[in-house]
Amino acid sequence: MDTTNLFIVICLLAAAAYVFGRRRAYVSSGGSIQNLHSLPGHYGLYAFILTTLPAVALLMFWSMLAPRVIEALLLTDLPVEIKAWSQEQLGLLLNDVRNSLKGYSVASDNPELIAHLGERYTAMAQTSNWLLWATSLSLCAGGLAWAWRSIRADHPARHRVETVAVSGLIACSLIALLTTIGIVLSVLFESLRFFQHVPVTEFLFGLEWSPQTAIRADQVGSSGAFGAVPLFTGTLLISAIAMLVAVPVGLMSSIYLAEYASQRIRAILKPLLEILAGIPTVVYGFFAALTVAPLIRDAGNWLGLEVASESALAAGLVMGIMIIPFVSSISDDVISAVPRAMREGSYGLGATQSETIRRVIIPAALPGIVGGILLAVSRAIGETMIVVMAAGLAANLTANPLEAVTTVTVQIVTLLVGDQEFDSPKTLAAFALGLTLFIITLILNIIALQIVRRYREQYD
Amino acid sequence: MEQRTVDLMQKRLKRRYAAERRFQWYGKISILIALTFLLLMFINIVGKGHHAFLQTHIRLTVDLESDAFPAETSSTNALYTADYSGLIKKALRKQFPEVTKRGDKRALYQLISPGAGYQLRDRIVAEPALIGQAIELWLTADDDVDMYVKYTPRDMSESESSTQRLSEKQRGWLEQLRSEGRLKTQFNTAFFTAGDSREPELAGIWGALVGSFFTLLVTLCLSFPIGVGAAIYLEEFAPKNKWTDVIEVNVNNLAAVPSIVFGLLGLAVFINFFGVPRSAPIAGGFVLTLMTLPVIIISSRAVLKAVPPSIREAALGIGASKVQMVFSHVVPLALPGMLTGTIIGMGRALGETAPLLMIGMMAFVVDIPAGLFDSSTALPVQIYLWADSPERGFEERTSAAIMVLLAFLVVMNAAAVYLRKRFERKW
Fold first, then answer.
1. Which residue, A38, A290, A411, B388, shows the most beta carbons closer than 10 Å to its own?
2. Total domain count for chain A?
3. Is residue A393 a contact partner of residue A414, using CB atoms and an 8 Å limit?
4. pLDDT tens per residue across span A92-143
5. Could you tell me if A27 and A151 lie in one domain?
6. Are B328 and B226 contained in the same domain?
């Protein structure tokens, strides 16, 4: 709460600095603005930036680092016997201290120690708070003084302000880059730790997946096998079913919309199809698990087939429907981009419309369509909620669409949801799966985007 | 000879025309398949979900005899100690004096929701003067009763499965209550005002809605300025070199990275490294920010690109600096389009589930979250959790929650379309 107050104080100071900067510039111009290098507002902004930017930066870093520093200090002067504790025990102790400060009940068997540490914690937090107020307010004052000294009629405030603005924009666009780096590093780092427990070759080529590691040595059914091949085949099976639905249906509907439908029908049907892309995947998952899967199971039983209630077919079908708009909207773009001259040449030779489409337009648009399909495949592989809700958990190595299979994404979710110790191979396996998923989709995306881009250039 | 050629040609023409018609039909059928599925899904969800907007209540005469309450009733805390479910059980016994056996009594108590005691408590705390009187009270019925009452008249096949959960006797009591006018279904306010619960009749979506609101608030506050800033830099300032190429390819790729990978990032970086509280809207907001950023950047860049160069040249021509040109002329013209893109991105973030599961926003949370750091769920996660619950009452509530989610998405997309129509400019 105290940092919030500080933030408000800094904001008030900033507003004051803006007014002051303008005023100062006006005074130093001798009453006529023409003498100024920049507009008065620029001087105001200059003072504003000098006053707030360092203080706010400090505030952010401080509130991020202070709890850690305090906890580290707290651990340095513990009784000797506690100092020898392992990292986890110390972590639990700190957790207890934090909980006791929040007024929760504490699990520790040493309440005096916790209370003592809690007191020290509060005291240190208070000191840190005072330090924060003092330093950030003096930073504000320093900035203001700097602005006071430098604002003169010929001071190039606009250049300074604009430099800061552009740097801010650069920082914004770097965040996108940092996200990718963050993904790669976090997933890679945890995966490497996983591969210390399980060799890469076993992970990539092992045929058995049962991530329950044994807690006791004599436990049954907890082999802790991490061979991901059944997951890959399961993912491929479900994605293949999805693509078998999505590609013909999506392609044909985009051809119809682009070539046959009248303007009016197109204006109605196209947005209707795009609704499919806007529905959250959890809704598809619900529909797949509670309506489509039982339907398919009943239909299979009626035909005398053995169908699992979490069959790959149900998940794949619904996922295929979800992907239709991705295929159709990309192929629609691509088909419309085929030059008119090619069409008319074909008609001139006496071809019917469907012959033109099949023999001329589709071959011409093929690279673009393939790119679109690759994007759709990467989408199907990475899709999570539908398979989490409608596909199975057991890793079966099968190509039978009527059986239950599991996928990479399902396993990531089941491994990470719920209580977990963070360093067990079980949790780390999720990151290794995530890394595989990221790499595969990345390759697919890069290829697809490259193909689509080259295709566009071809007809531009 | 000539006649044969003509015949052959005509035959072939016929075949070609037939192929043409078939091809058209393939297209029509494809669209039909997609739209039929959409329609079936909506019918299925609305068909199941509309039941959840009604809830069965049972009217009981509860005797609030003063001995059941502590002598000192001025403070709320003292009132909290009374045995309210005991009072309700007593009222049930009075309603059906013929029930004496222990097992039967237990079956009788099951007609009323376990949460009814709290309803009574809240009523008394609000109006302590009622103590000592006998009041008529509509109490929430148990979910099995609710299913029985709502489904029996409509279709017997469905009722067969649901009534199996109620015994012959329980159904008899219910019919008796019905004939006395002590049974009614009314609008289910709890569904819109309560948090999650293990009992379907007490579970509501308000907690999830508030959680989603906080999460989206964080997402909006971060992703709009950052996304627009990045788009402005890439479109207006960035020199054409390798670095900007890298950023550009990177943004396009991020847009296609599976959402669950963002969840892994959030878990490893935000929660385990920076110590952001687990399950809190702020963590969810951070993750969804990273997910929506590429969407906003790409759409904002398209809008900026559409602003004609003449605007820029005119601004530069009268002596504006580049920054002034961008911020006073280009950005204001592009802002409505950027807002449209942001709303669409927010809509996507609202429906996103998988990354939120990764950062623990699937905890069972009964309380309504009060801030950015409280444990909470989000609406799509709530749907996922309920879809997993075996009770039939949750199935219809899941559908109803989906209806609410879809309604929000429709409103957001309609707003985006309206903005686009209202501010669209043809240059």
1. A411
2. 2
3. yes
4. 777 777 777 776 666 666 777 777 788 888 888 888 888 888 998 999 999 8
5. yes
6. yes
Nearest to A375 by CA among A284, A283, A450, A456: A450
What is the rounded average pLDDT of the residues A76-102? 73
Q: Residue B258 is nearest to which of A286, A357, A382, comparing CB atoms? A: A382
Ordered mean pLDDT values, 10 residues apiece, chain B (427 residues): 84 93 94 94 91 88 80 70 84 85 85 85 82 84 84 53 68 85 86 87 90 94 95 91 86 89 90 83 93 93 92 93 93 91 93 90 81 87 89 88 94 90 77
Do A445 and A325 belong together in one domain?
A: yes
Picking from A172, A173, A377, A410 by the largest number of B CB atoms within 10 A of its own CB, the best residue to mutate is: A173
Predicted model pTM? 0.88
Number of domains present in the structure of chain B: 2
* Cβ-based contacts of A65 with chain B (< 8 Å): none
- pLDDT for res A220: 52
A134-181 tens-digit pLDDT: 998 999 999 889 888 888 888 888 899 999 999 999 999 898 888 889
- Nearest partner of A357 among B32, B30, B31, B19, judged by Cα: B19
- Between A373 and A73, residue with greater pLDDT: A373
Q: Are residues B265 and B305 in the same domain?
A: yes
CATH of the domain at A339: 1.10.3720.10
Which of B120, B105, B8 is CA-nearest to residue B64? Answer: B120
Q: Cα–Cα distance between A405 and A393 in angstroms, integer?
A: 7
Asked whether the beta carbons of residue A175 and residue B35 sit closer than 8 angstroms, the reply is no
Contacts of residue A378, defined as CB under 8 A and 6 or more positions apart, other chains included, come to A440, A441, A444, A445, A448, B256, B258
CA distance to A141, A268, A410, B128, B262, per residue, from B72 (Å): 58, 69, 56, 11, 56
Task: Please check whether residues A119 and A244 belong to one and the same domain.
Answer: no
Say if residue A256's pLDDT is above 90.
yes
Asked whether residue B62 falls in the same domain as residue B161, the answer is yes
- Together in a domain, A277 and A370: yes
Cβ pair B353:A286 closer than 8 A: no
Three-state SS string over B270-287 comes to: HHCCCCCCCCCHHHHHHH
Residue B215 and residue B81 share a domain: no
Q: Among candidates B354, B344, B360, which has minimal Cα distance to B294?
A: B344
Residue whose structure tokens are 């799966």: A433
CA angle B114, B106, B131 (to 5 degrees): 55
Say whether residue B262 is in contact with chain A using an 8 A CB cutoff: yes
* Predicted ipTM of the assembly: 0.89
From chain A residues 429-458, the ones with a CB under 8 A of any chain B CB are 430-431, 434, 437-438, 441-442, 445-446, 449
Output the CA–CA distances (angstroms, integers) from residue B332 to A93, B232, B311, B338, in the order listed: 54, 12, 12, 10
Distance from the Cα of residue B201 to its chain's centroid = 18
B260 closest CB neighbour out of A272, A276, A412: A412
DSSP codes, A260-286 = IS-HHHHHHHHHHHHHHHHS-HHHHHH
| Residue B204 at interface with chain A, using a CB cutoff of 8 Å | no
Give the structural domain span for A104: 2-155
The domain in which residue B164 lies consists of 56-186
Phi-psi region of B266 (alpha: psi -120 to 50; beta: other; left: phi over 0): alpha
Interface with B, mutate which of A249, A282, A386 (most B CBs under 10 A):
A282
The predicted-structure confidence for A394-405, as pLDDT tens digits, reads as follows 888 888 888 888
CA distances to A80, B261, B337 from A410, rounded to whole Å, are: 46, 12, 37
Domain shared by A424 and A298, yes or no? yes
Residues A103 and A230 placed together within one structural domain of the fold? no
CA distances from B163 to B158, B166, B174 (A): 9, 5, 12
pLDDT score of B157: 47
Give the amino acid at A4. T
The answer to whether residue A188 sits within a structural domain is no
Quick one: pLDDT at residue A345? 93
